[in-house]
Amino acid sequence: MNKITQDLPTPTWKRIIDDIYQMGCTVIFVEGGEPTLRPDLEKLIDYMKNKGFKVVLFSNGTRPINHLEPDAIWISIDGIEEHHNKIRGTGTFQKIMHTLKDNPEKNILSITTLSKLNVGRLEELCQVLSNTSLKGLIFNYMYPYQGIRLEALSREERVHSARRLMELKRIYPKIASSDSYLKMVGQKDKVCYPWILMLATADGKLTHGCTVEPTEDADCGKCDMMCGLEASAGFDLRPDSIAFWNKSNFLPPSHLVPGWITKLLNNDWKN
Fold first, then answer.
1. 95: Cβ contacts below 8 Å, ≥ 6 apart
2. What percent of the chain has pLDDT over 90?
């Protein structure tokens, strides 16, 4: 495993951002570790946005974010309080709840990676999170990396939970994951375009393609991660997936959106 012991300095990351810009990327997901530990994070986000990127910040939600202005913040919530704290540490769930109360105006969505630990309390989690200021609830599926394979759901469990989420969307409209994505979960004919993705690792190395490959050989049959499937559904202009991505403000203001995209979003596309 590639272990990085020292963060790259701000100028180096700006050069990497410039390289990504030259390659034609338009959206950057800022992940970690925990990105809010970097004292220059606000400057880096501003630098990305000034270049025209859409910026999504991943965070554990336990540190101040009021000074940060990405287009969206995705906070990792790994289940109801009991399950989340078991994974993330005692008291971390309540810290997230305080973060949400302190930032009700921010475009914050939760992202929950489903595993054997949390899938059994799915509806309870949707109920709890729907009663917060979260703008949407995103669901993902754990990839069976070496070391956590026993925690990953089987294909049958993934399919069953995805169908359950589609049912729960009628009760909890904050569930943001698109039906287009959820219907692909566990299917042999799912559509994934790994070339959509690019990964910049902590040492500054750029990798184009599947996000699993830099760590280990990927098994596509066992992968239902939303990073590839939801992105591919959006690339294919599936209306519900476009609506999903727009919850993170990926589209420009409505008066700048081409008419055919507006028709897709309004579900009134005519042949």
1. 61, 62
2. 79
Q: pTM of this prediction?
A: 0.90
Q: Where do the domains of the chain lie, and which CATH numbers do they carry?
A: 10-265 (3.80.30.10)
CB burial of 137-146 (b: ≥16 within 10 Å; e: otherwise) equals bbbbbbbbee
Rounded distance between C-alpha atoms, residue 37 and residue 230, angstroms? 28
The DSSP output letter for 175 is: B
Which region, left, alpha or beta, applies to residue 91 given φ > 0 means left and ψ of -120 to 50 means alpha? Answer: left
Question: Contact 228/210 with Cβ under 8 angstroms?
Answer: yes
| pLDDT higher than 90, residue 254 | no
For residue range 64-84, list pLDDT tens digits in order: 999 999 999 999 999 999 999
